[in-house]
Amino acid sequence: MNDTSAEVVVGVDGSDSATVAACWAAAVAVKLGTAVRLVHAVPETGFALGETTAAMRAAAIESLSANAERMLDDVRSAVVAAQPESSVSTVAIAEPVDNALIAAGAHARLIVLGGVEVRLAAAVLLGSTTLRVAAGAQCPVVAFRGSALEPSTAPIVVGLDDSSSALAALDVALAMAEAFGAPVRVVHAWTLASIPDDVPGFPDWEQVNAAAQARITAIVDDAQRRHPGAQATIVWERPGPSRALLDHLDDAQLVAVGNRGRSLLAAAMLGSTGLNLLHNSKVPVMVCDRGVRVS
Question: 4 or 34, which is more confident?
Answer without folding.
Answer: 34
